[in-house]
Amino acid sequence: MEHLEFRFPGRPGLVWKAEGKLVGVVGSGNLEVLIEPADLKGDCLATISTSIVGFGETWRQVLTDFMERHTLSDIRISINDGGATPAVVSLRLDQAVADYLGAAQ
Amino acid sequence: MYQSSMLGKPARDWTRLEQSYRGRMERGNAISGNKIVPHQDAVALMEAVIESGDRVCIEGNNQKHADFLAAELARCSPKRIHGLHIVQSNIALPTHLDVFENGLAEKLDFCYSGPQGVRISRLVKDGQVKVGAIHTYLELYSRYFCDLTPHVSFIAADAADRDGNLYTGVNTEDTPAIVEATAFKSGILIAQVNRIVDRVPRVDVPGDWVSYVIESPKPYYIEPIFTRDPAVITEIQILMAMMVIRGIYEKYGVTRLNHGIGFDTAAIELILPTYAADLGLKGKICRYMSVNPCPTLIPAIESGFIDGIHCAGSEVGMSDYVAARSDVFFIGRDGSMRSNRVFCQLAGHYADLFIGSTLQIDLEGNSSTATHNRITGFGGAPNFGSESRGRRHASPSWLLAGQEASRDPHRMPRGRKLVVQLVQTFSDPTSPTFVERLDAWTLKDSFGLPLPPVMVYGDDLTHIVTEEGIANLLLCDDLAEREQAIRAVAGYTPVGLGRDRAVVTRLRAKGAVVYPEDIGVDKRLATRDLLAARSIKDLVRWSGGLYDPPARFRNW
Predict the structure, then answer these.
(1) Can you tell me the ipTM of this complex?
(2) Domain B32-215 is found in CATH 3.40.50.80
(3) Which chain A residues touch B524 with a CB distance below 8 Å?
């Protein structure tokens, strides 16, 4: 296992008020993502536990692109990865945000 | 004077091929005395009618194979027959290469060698196979009518009557092209059939074109290669399918098209009745298709999405379903489908769109399925997946693509076929689809090929769809823009990470790079719930029990 942590400066915009959103199941889709509000002084924090070692740079890129696609602040993202592709990670993250936005409307 | 010089020459005999045919038939008739030859006499018949140096075709396509005759040819004596030039579409069975190892054949012109790719590579390196050229299907069959006409062809049919009339049924495939070229250029045509009957259900090949018929000890080999189990379609493939429907089919109004045969295009087929129907696209897209009867098409057909399908071949388990849908498929008076690879390839070539998958794409958009140690060949994809420069009739899709491709309003306007590659950025965790240099270059060097084997050339390609988005190459002004549009959808591959973000932003503004949110693709819908069928059993249910899947696809 490898544990990674990335902190991003938040961007004021979407304020995550709802409860934590869990998407994906490790057993079937080899990835679990939990997004929840947290007091991070406006920042966003991603922590990753992955069974595949040595892809820290790719994780950083995937999460940077995710942060660019959305305006997020004060959220914590917890990822439990069993070898998902960057595509699946991005899709799950986007689905979580879209679900939240849909629910807030 | 003209006339006098002619008079001085000895008269030429203009019927040597015909005389050769008569001689071969006399020797063949001495073996059997009948058009119907017992299978035990196959080797003797072949040794009687084949001459050394002949061009020989053993019918073998994606599916149907003259496998008995292939095995019997490999048993012939190289002392009697040698120096054969094999001219046939597929090198798929071990016996196809046994004829080279056994010293019967020397030269090979072919199209595709999927499962024998590694062995053929070794035989080429050892000098036992001299490759003339690797073709597409349409090219090889075209050459049958120019310089590569077979002297002897072995074909496969379902049934024959005692006059040699053949019934090829749903698996007609390449038979008409082979038969036409061979029979009308004084060639010998030997058919293996599954059974001899008093009366064939329909005449697919007239008996007087056929030289000999052999009832095979067992039915010809056929493989279900177009069956894709919906159970293994991923959410990423569904997301990509959604982008194709919104970003390409809806945008251009694509009604006539050809689908590749992978899971990526199966995902498109399976969300037509759900996603595309909800968008109000029924009757507006995907109305006519040139494809085999892939089981994943069933829900779209049942939903009334697809008006017509012409098939290159059939698919195991689909016969009853297809026969019951004669408004959609091409069906004989006997009630079974008629397939024809050449006509299907032509229909697909002149359609509005081709979409398929590949293994590698370079920075110009050239794509290849070649890997460095195997010669697999081309098959039919290059003819489907290429601009049809001879096309003259217009359609909304063709005109819009042509407008996008146009760089100068003062030049002659013309339309454009859409050629789309649908790929995930990685084919497996260590193999990026996007590469700086195709493995095809290595293959060219290893095997002394005249060119790298490119499946779809970059200048024929119009769109690349990945899980990241769509690169619209029509809207790129030059190769530098094209490269950045490709990098923009190449994700986290080294090629993708090398993109210039400022250029990509500019390309996105003009529509040359499109991300899901730009075309209203809601990623929340990208789940397996969107599939009209999520299992083979669902497909059987959609078909009203008419689809009869092969045992290996049944898990209930």
Answers:
(1) 0.87
(2) no
(3) 95, 98-99, 102
Cβ of A87 within 8 Å of Cβ of B429? The answer is no
Interface test with A, best of B237, B425, B492, B495 (most A CBs within 10 A): B492
Query: Domain boundaries in chain A?
Result: 2-104
> What is the DSSP secondary-structure string of A5-47?
EEEE---SSEE--S--EEE--HHHHSEEEEEEE--STT-EEEE
Measured between alpha carbons, how far is B114 from B91 in angstroms, rounded to an integer? Answer: 8
A102 vs B contacts (CB less than 8 Å): 524
Closest chain A C-alpha to B58 CA, distance in angstroms:
44
Q: Is B457 exposed, middle or buried (0-12, 13-18, 19+ CB in 10 A)?
A: middle
pLDDT band at A105 (very low <50, low <70, confident <90, very high): very low
Give the closest of B467, B468, B524 to A99, CB-based: B524
- Cβ distance B467 to A87 less than 8 Å, yes or no, reads yes
- Supply the pTM of this predicted model: 0.94
Closest-CA distance, B491 to chain A, in angstroms, reads 8
> In chain B, what are the domain boundaries?
32-215, 230-540
Which CATH superfamily, name and number, covers B230-540?
Answer: Glutaconate Coenzyme A-transferase (3.40.1080.10)
**Do the two domains B32-215 and B230-540 of this chain adopt the same fold?**
yes
Chain A residues with CB under 8 Å of B491 CB are 86-87
Q: Minimal CA–CA distance to B164: which of B130, B193, B127?
A: B193
Degrees, nearest 5: CA angle B5-B6-B11: 140
- List the one residue out of B473, B490, B491 whose CA is nearest residue B482: B473
Which residue from B minimizes the CA distance to A61? B492
Rounded Cα distance between A39 and A32, Å, is 22
Query: Does residue A74 come out as left (phi exceeding 0), alpha (psi in the -120 to 50 range) or beta?
Result: left
Identify the closest residue of chain A to B466 by CA–CA distance: A87
List chain B residues with CB under 8 Å of A63: none
Q: Could you tell me which of B69, B125, B123, B70 has the C-alpha nearest to residue B92?
A: B70
- Candidates B171, B217, B524, B442; CA nearest to B315 is B171
Q: What is the pLDDT of residues B130-177, one digit of tens each?
A: 999 999 999 999 999 999 999 999 999 999 999 999 999 999 999 999
**B399 has a pLDDT exceeding 90:** yes
At the topology level of CATH, where does A2-104 sit?
Answer: Ribosomal Protein S5; domain 2 (3.30.230)
The candidate with the shortest Cα–Cα distance to B229, out of B465, B478, B549, B457, is B549
Contact B492 A102 (CB under 8 A): no
Give CA–CA dist B123/B116, Å, rounded: 11
Residue B378 to residue A93: CA distance in whole angstroms: 39
Considering only CB atoms, which chain A residues are within 8 Å of B234? 88
Predicted confidence at residue B556, as pLDDT, reads 73
Cβ neighbors of B14 (< 8 A, separation 6 or more) are none
Predicted confidence (pLDDT) per residue in B1-27, tens digit: 555 556 667 788 999 999 999 999 999
Q: Taking Cα atoms as reference points, which of B328, B326, B258 lies closest to residue B300?
A: B328
